[in-house]
Amino acid sequence: MHIVVCIKQVPDSAQIRIHPVTNTIMRQGVPAIINPFDLFSLEEALRLKDKVGARVTVLTMGPPMAETSLRKALSLGADDAVLLTDRKFAGSDTLATSYALTSAIQKLAEEDPVDIVFCGKQTVDGDTAQVGPGIATRLGFEQLTYITKIEDLDIASREIVVQRRSEGGVQVLKTKLPCMITMLEGTNTIRFGKMDDLFRAARYELKTWSRDFTGAEEGRVGLKGSPTVVSKVFVPKPRAEKAKMIVADADTPDAMAAAAIDAIFAAQPKLAGDLLARAAAGL
Amino acid sequence: MSEPSKPQGRKFQLPEHLKIYKNVWVIVEQERGIVHSVSLELLGEARKLADKLGVEVGAVVLGADSPDLNRICGDAIGYGADIVYKVTDPALADYRTDPYCRVMTEVVNTHKPEIVLLGATTLGRDLAGAIATTLATGLTADCTELDIYADNRSLAATRPTFGGTLLCTIQTLAYRPQMATVRPRVMAMPERDDARTGRVIEIQPDLREEDIVTKVLNFIADREQNEAQLAFADIIVSAGKGLGKVENMKLVFDLARVLGAEVGVTRPLVQAGWATNDRQVGQTGKTVRPKLYIAAGISGAIQHRVGMEKSDLILAINTDPNATIFDFAHLGLVGDALKILPALTDAFGRRLSINRMAG
Ligand SMILES: Cc1cc2nc3c(=O)[nH]c(=O)nc-3n(C[C@H](O)[C@H](O)[C@H](O)COP(=O)(O)OP(=O)(O)OC[C@H]3O[C@@H](n4cnc5c(N)ncnc54)[C@H](O)[C@@H]3O)c2cc1C
Ligand SMILES: Cc1cc2nc3c(=O)[nH]c(=O)nc-3n(C[C@H](O)[C@H](O)[C@H](O)COP(=O)(O)OP(=O)(O)OC[C@H]3O[C@@H](n4cnc5c(N)ncnc54)[C@H](O)[C@@H]3O)c2cc1C
User: Fold this and answer.
1) How much is the ipTM here?
2) CA A130 to ligand 1 centroid distance, Å
3) Residue pLDDT, tens place only, B238-248
4) Is residue A232 part of a domain?
5) Is A95 close to B142, i.e. CB distance below 8 A?
């Protein structure tokens, strides 16, 4: 079994600040982390490795500094790591990104056929959730997104049974390898790395691959290979007025509650009517 | 929305062979005969875009043939479609990426819409990512606003990034169709017009179940479980860290019961195990648009804000008069939620029952 986990290095979105004058992102000092959702997928891959035995390769496309994310993944127990890095990839949208990553996965498969590709559900910077489906479609793999649970994996028959979140419920799906899986957040706890993996990660010689090396066509990556273009970036307009503060005659909770209900009913007469009708109907 | 400013950056000329792409499409999402409301919201939005472009609205309805499906085709027309592409095959009964992607790729390539919209749901995002790849075109994710650039008739799709701290407007240059997914409850629900008429084009794709690798073994509907239905609630009472401890969640559920409301929470509460993740509101949770959103002990972090700021009326209760949430709530109450929630429960209870006796 060979499992590839795609991880992306992202700025910690909780710590992003916007420059008050220029309205640009202030990246200085913002720590780079592994996209949180990718860790759930990595954990699932490592669990499959523990259970059925597998080689886990982590793959990222990004600037040279993305190396730190790969080493982190190695320290958690991944076996191999590939850094796909090249100026020519800069400005790739999801179509170009999934093309570039697919070219690297195909390169990996020449050595050792790939059975499962894991991606995160989405990233916390681009947030599109489109790269995983892009990779699956290009590889011709079965596509399993929003997976909450891997129920069963049978190596001999190459069959996998998963639970998939849909809008109105949970689908139980049975499919065959090879497949691409994205895990839903919060389904498992992420492990701490073992000491020897930590040492191995520090010494590990990364594979650094360029566009030329994977054979990705130049016109299909970077800005040139991207149908979408960001034409404008701006800070959301703050709402013009602040909240109207509810002031009660007395400072007791009851007086405040009464004043709050008055304010709600005054602002939303229709809602008041609905509530009263509902109450009258004895619901 | 006002006219978006002119696109900056690269100039482009639409290649001649792409100029025949016309009409604005919505892929209508239905699961087990129930149409997702985001699809109806999108039909309203598609109508506005199509009117600006002077073209028609197309709705694609996929599934196994059934009376439900016919009803959904009628709904699509009532909510704004001029043409319904009714695509039926037993293999389309349940959503699976592969057959849906194959069929949609073919229908788009045959009928050549210039814009294709889907809901940013588990189905819509799964399918959109796949067909944008087979069609080799651009896809803008999770949009909150759509408009048309007047000078070149291209789609201006605005979406949040970096967890909502920034918005960006994206366009798809020399590729067609232009694709976008849109979050549920961001666009207003249009009025249904029963007098509207439209044509239905029936399409029977060539699918064979034995060619489809993935099988649906089971479907466990939320309705039969006990999942929170936040996305459709009229009133939501939400709790944040300010509630202090898990025992105090009762205060929120008590108020919700009196109001017939759903209970929402911030992410730290899910992480602390005070609530299940189907109740989380925000960037990595649900987007909601209730008539009334009561936020108790919630600071108003951007990741929470993006999930609830479209609520019609937001009442915030917070001990800190400088809490961020007061910057975007409509009504603010500075005070202890642990005392105000029970007082609200009592007061609402009394008002509603008094009126019941009087009425
Ligand atoms: C402001 C802004 C807005 C953007 N909006 C769009 C848009 O609407 N449409 C569009 O096509 N592009 C958009 N992009 C470009 C997009 O962010 C990049 O293409 C990005 O490389 C991949 O998209 P994502 O971060 O959304 O990944 P997602 O599709 O959300 O990521 C899903 C998973 O794919 C894997 N993955 C993603 N990127 C990498 C990587 N570099 N290396 C390894 N694994 C990876 C990870 O497992 C990740 O969890 C935008 C960029 C910016 C700066
Ligand atoms: C990638 C990422 C994704 C995220 N996604 C989400 C998401 O989807 N949804 C989400 O909610 N968060 C999300 N977060 C977390 C978010 O950044 C905030 O940490 C979170 O919203 C804060 O929750 P809170 O308001 O409950 O808690 P706090 O920020 O701790 O605020 C508690 C508030 O309660 C007030 N308070 C204290 N005591 C009382 C009292 N007795 N009565 C009244 N008020 C009181 C305090 O003044 C304070 O304002 C995400 C974060 C990241 C990094």
Assistant:
1) 0.89
2) 7
3) 999 999 999 99
4) no
5) no
